[in-house]
Amino acid sequence: MRRLWPKSLLGQLMLVIALALAAAQAINFVMLYQASERLRLVEAAGPVVARVSA
């Protein structure tokens, strides 16, 4: 682990920023996936609700 951590402050800052950006991308992907799953469920339930209420 010591070899992966840069010695210079600039290198450390760049690594921390890169890790934060990667984490943000992962969180964004999960949120988009959940939203698309929710939309798919709503679109699938729409015709059923229309038939039941008609």
Please tell me about this protein's structure:
The protein is built from 1 helix and no strands. The mean pLDDT is 89. 83% of the residues lie in helices and 0% in strands. The longest helix is centred in the middle third of the chain and has 45 residues, at 9-53. The protein is an all-alpha fold.
Compact overview of the structure:
The protein is rod-shaped and about 70 Å long.
Keywords, separated by commas or semicolons:
single chain; 54 residues; mainly alpha; 1 helix; 83% helix
Calculate the mean pLDDT score and round it: 89
Q: What about the largest sheet?
A: none
Tally of individual helices = 1
Summarize the helix and strand pattern as letters: H
Taking all Cα atoms into account, the compactness measure Rg is 22 Å
List strands and helices in order, with pairings:
Elements lengths: L8 H45 L1
